[in-house]
Write a structure and sequence with these properties.
The chain is mainly α. It has a domain of about 80 residues. It contains four helices and two strands. The chain has a two-stranded antiparallel ribbon with strand order 1-2. It is flat. About 5% of the residues are buried. The model has no long low-confidence stretch (mean pLDDT about 80).
Length: about 120
């Protein structure tokens, strides 16, 4: 009789380390909390202050809050919205301005204008 080979290698599922996430590893906790906060801050004024009928309020809130909530839940480039905003602010604060020196141009010397061209023509 033939002996069957047994393998001790098992495939590790992709969501093995997703224990700190919500809805089976689909949403991160930080993104969910930020999304709820942002939707509350933006949605409450829309609900209470817009002088529209009920159907129009639903349409306006669907057009504005649904994309905002989806972006807040997904995040941008793997970061939450506040992390991404922090990256933008840090970039603006730390960016450098590059100055290229022109070849043959001397800083601080006389300005070239009509007067210098007139002297050169004599």
């Amino acid at each position: 009789m033939e002996e069957k080979e047994y393998s001790n290698q098992y495939a590790i599922p992709a969501n093995y380390t997703d224990s700190g996430k919500l809805f089976g590893g689909m949403l991160e906790v930080r993104n969910t909390i930020e999304a709820i906060f942002i939707l509350t801050v933006v949605g409450y004024p829309e609900l209470t202050w817009l002088p529209l009928t009920g159907v129009m309020k639903v349409v306006v809130m669907t057009v504005t809050l649904l994309p905002l909530g989806i972006i807040a839940l997904m995040g941008i480039a793997g970061d939450s919205l506040l992390q991404y905003a922090g990256h933008i602010v840090r970039y603006w604060a730390r960016r450098r301005k590059l100055h290229y020196r022109r070849i043959g141009y001397r800083y601080g010397k006389g300005k070239k204008g009509a007067a210098s061209r007139k002297k050169a023509g004599k």
